[in-house]
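Many introductory courses stop at the sequence. We go one step further.
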Amino acid sequence: MTEEQNQDAIDEDALYNRLDHYLASYGCERSLMCVSELDGYFTALGCTKDSLEPDAWISGIWGVDEDQPAWASPEEEEEFLSLVLLMYVNTMDCLVKGELHPVYLQVEVDGDQEIVIDEWCVGFMRGARLTGLTRKGDKSFLDEVLASVRLFGTEAGWNKLDNMSREEIIFWQELIEPSIMRLAQFNHPEISLAESKNPPVLH
């Protein structure tokens, strides 16, 4: 089976559900806990100018050295690595094409479906810290493009959101995706931004 056929054979929901299972089963409070966080994390890796070796960002999923999983079997570890690499490649491919399809959580609140973006932003900020993305380059530009994701992905940002109106929150939420694509293109000028708005993936 070719790599392309193998990717086509894996249903997106099944991919996310299996990854959620492993993250929940083997993670701790310092780990990424869901695929939304994982996708944000990968997006940050794709936005940085300097790439990381897989060993560095795979271990970063779990936390520090003592947080690395004690796998129940080699087969489980192999499956996790296969799935996480597939999701990583999918996220990178979108960025290279000038597209962003963030994986946001969808939850039911009082009978209505609501989109939750905080986890994606938490994952992005984790990837940004791992790569040094927040410390490299023009500070004023970084502060501008990261302002929205910091609001939804850090404790300091959540405190600010508590004092904002619904209209202000929506304003900042809608800035996330175009701001992140500006950052990706800034560090990778070869990226041509897609003209159409790309819908998020709801999970």
